Amino acid sequence: MESASRSSRSGSCADLATRRQFLKVGLAAGAVLAVVRFLERSEAAPAPNHRVLDSTAVVTVAAFVPIVLEGTLPEEPQARARAIRETVEGFDRAVSGLSLPVQKEVDQLFGVLRFAPTRLAFTGLWQPVEESSPEEVAAFLLRWRHSSFDIQRAGYQALTQLIQAAWFDNPLSWPAIGYPGPPRIA
Amino acid sequence: MSVPDPIREGLARGWKAIDAATLAADRELECDVAIVGSGAGGGVTAEILTAAGLSVVILEEGPLVGSTEFRMREREAYPRLYQESAARQTLDKAITILQGRCVGGGTTVNWTSSFRTPPRTLAHWNKAYGLDALTESALAPWFARMEERLSIGPWGMPPNENNDVLRRGATKLGIAHGAIRRNVKGCANLGYCGMGCPLNAKQSMLVTTIPAALDRGATLVHRARVTRLVAEGDRVVACDAFGVERNGAQQSARRVRVRARHFVLAAGAINTPAILISSAIPDPNGLAGKRTFLHPTVVSGSAFAQKVEGYYGAPQTVYSDHFLDGVALDGPMGFKLEAPPVHPILAGITLPGFGADHARWMTRFPNLQVLIALMRDGFHGESPGGQVVLRSGWPVLDYPLNDYVWNGVRRAYLAMAEIQFAAGAQSVMPLHEGAQPLTSWREAKGAIEALTLRPLHSRVVSAHVMGGCPMGSDPRAAVVDDGGRHHHVQNLSIHDASTFPTSVGANPQLTIYALAARHATGLAATLKA
To answer: CA–CA separation, B335 vs B333, rounded Å?
Structure first.
């Protein structure tokens, strides 16, 4: 908080302080990340109906879906629940088709979100994603979207694009976007 | 009405096709020529070598899928027919690469744009890489031959509205533009070329050269990833492939070993260099995988009052080379303008933002119009391209984006926005995480000039991977000679876009076809002698 108010008051000096703080957070988080890789590797089996995501990751993705897809998800509760479920399944299918090194990176991303110290350091979320408010999750996604760290922007793009890809070829999404679907071959 | 499926019919007539993912035991095969890859380079090569009476085995990482299974659904097509589910990315994730991974390779899923290699590109290759034999006039018969074989010609229908915006805007601004020739026969103007043509109208390798080769007795091993060439001294004696499952993400333990007199790599410009590197093929100057080019492509979205319906109608029928022709090859980065197909997944992941920001564009999907600018890379000292590296055995392209590229990106955003407004767009937005919808050319000009350009903020995509195993007369500066023959290995050739010394500056399929036809004809003569 303190550094934020300082940087708003004076220019380059505060920028430097902010940058230094970022760097410190970055380094510390890097060390923690190494630990996370051992402690929080997903050892769990894929959740039922899923190929690679375990049950914790399924809950996490399901929490992101309504925030990323606000404005195109159906409002009616039953249709909405189905849309979220199918989007998570599509997310899982998409991850299962990535190269193994990239799948491992996705797994690490969920490790970071699951392990409280890295979650706080990287995302600013005190609670797990599914227990945070939509405003908190949206604010975190926005921070990553415009982060000065390439890795956070990459994490933001992976999360949002996998969710968007999973939703927009689901015919359930087409009424909201006005897509009539592929033509019938006469 | 049911459309005949040439793949099902061929299999029923007894084609020799082996699905490596379902093998119960290892296999060994022998032939005159083993061809790795069944896309533009491998397909043409297979047809010409089998016509010369040589025995051929084609190895393809992707599946053998025919028109019956092309249902115009992105969800089905991307995981099945593309590398890494159409989400292949450069090392830092800043560029998404669309690359085919199926029988027919990129030609099964490309958007049918057919250009001869620009004369300026050939002149540069001649001068800078000693490719004296590859002049415009020397290649003309090869282009003509492949144009005839693949029904490449003018497209008779009017452009869809998405493309007509490019035509109208360019006309209004006095910007030179033209009609794109296409490799189609009996095309119904559906617009789903990127998901595999359900009518077999696109004259891809899948319905032309590969069936011809299989009818002449070639063997096709599909869902087989070639991991290495086995070399002894300056000869390759075998290549090893493993079955792949789960859309390529998982490798099986079953091996297919192919022994041959000659080997042709045509696995595309990421996988071909990766095979050379992982096989430790002699490379005294460390060239393999370096100088890999992408035509890095940036995107401008716009909204129109009327429906655009960019999902229907032939994609990419209008182009402009104004911003390529107007700059020196070694000057600021030039770019080619085209109008791509607009489908829900591609649009959904390419439009920036999330939630309400994103929904604002998606909910006007039928009115969305999209232009792309393909940047010509590899001609300038500050455009060295990328490098293919192996990560836990998986190839990945490290392609840093530098200020030279960003300068081109900014000019491309400006050019596209001006054209879109000239054609009547209500709003325009460069696809960039920091951009907002802009409602006039004047506003757009200021906003684009002020935009901070950096990786993972600008959407950068590529559908053209080239280079990494360049042709050239000097063995110290090139991997293969002008006939595609490896400089240091006797019986190894490369027939794909990896042999391009720079990018093409145009959609590359016809360049690959013509060079592969020339290389394969030369190779057949040598092997039959």
So the answer is: 7
A141 inside 8 A of chain B by CB: yes
Contacts of A94 in chain B (CB under 8 A): 79, 85, 87
Pair B35, B43: CB distance under 8 Å: no
- Chain A: give the shortest CA distance to residue B408, in Å: 21
Mean pLDDT in chain B? 97
Give the CA distances from residue B205 to residues B64, B213, B223, in Å, rounded to whole numbers and listed in that order.
12, 10, 17
**Would you state the structure tokens that stand for residue A1, as one six-digit string?**
């908080």
CB-based contact, B400 to chain A, within 8 Å: no
Residue A115 φ/ψ region, left for φ over 0, alpha for ψ in the -120 to 50 degree band, beta for the rest? beta
In percent, the amount of chain A with pLDDT more than 90 equals: 71
H-assigned helices in B174-222:
209-215
Q: Taking each helix axis as running N to C, give the angle between helix A134-145 and helix A150-168, from 0 to 180 degrees, rounded to the nearest 10.
A: 120
B451-457: long-range contacts (C-beta < 8 A, 24 or more apart)? B451/B410, B451/B413, B453/B406, B453/B409, B453/B410, B454/B401, B454/B406, B455/A150, B455/A153, B455/B92, B455/B94, B455/B401, B456/A150, B456/A153, B456/A154, B456/A157, B456/B92, B456/B93, B456/B94, B457/A153, B457/B432, B457/B433
Q: Where are the alpha helices (DSSP H) in B198-321?
A: 209-215, 268-278
ipTM of the complex: 0.95
Kindly state the tokens that stand for B116: 């001869």
CA distance B386 to B276: 16
CA angle, residues B46, B52, B54, in degrees to nearest 5: 65
Return the pLDDT at A43.
62
Helix/strand/coil for B272:
helix
Going by C-beta distance under 8 Å and a sequence separation of 6 or more, which residues neighbour residue B90? B97, B386, B396, B397, B398, B399
Asked if A138 lies within 8 A of B93 by C-beta distance, the reply is no
Q: How confident is the model at residue A185 (pLDDT cuts 50, 70, 90)?
A: confident
B16-19 and B27-36: which strand pairing? Answer: unpaired
Mean pLDDT in residue range B439-445: 98
* pTM assigned to the model: 0.94
What's the start-to-end Cα distance of chain A, in Å? 64
- B349 to A161: CB separation less than 8 angstroms, yes or no: yes
Comparing CA positions, the residue from B410, B79, B361 lying closest to residue B247 is B79
> What residues of B are in contact with residue A93 (Cβ under 8 Å)?
79
Q: Which candidate, B59, B169, B186, B46, places its Cα nearest to that of B112?
A: B186
What is the DSSP code string of chain A? -HHHHHHHHSSHHHHHHHHHHHHHHHHHHHHHHHHHHHHS---SPPPTT-SS--HHHHHHHHHHHHHHTTTTS--SHHHHHHHHHHHHHHHHHHHHTS-HHHHHHHHHHHHHHHSHHHHHHHH--SS-GGGS-HHHHHHHHHHHHT-SSHHHHHHHHHHHHHHHHHHHTSGGGHHHHT---SPP--
In terms of residues, how long is chain B? 529
**Are residues B336 and B260 in contact, defined by beta-carbon separation less than 8 angstroms?**
no
Reduce the secondary structure of B381-412 to three states and give it as a string. Answer: CCCCCEEEEEECCEEEEECCCCHHHHHHHHHH
Which of helix, strand or coil describes residue B246? Answer: helix
With beta carbons less than 8 A apart as the criterion, state whether B88 and B109 touch.
no
Of all residues in chain B, the one with the smallest CA distance to A176 is: B363
Asked whether the predicted pLDDT for residue B224 surpasses 50, the reply is yes
Q: With an 8 Å Cβ cutoff, are B344 and A183 in contact?
A: no
Q: Number of residue pairs across A and B with CB atoms under 8 Å? A: 143
The total of other beta-carbon atoms located within 10 Å of residue B248's CB is: 24
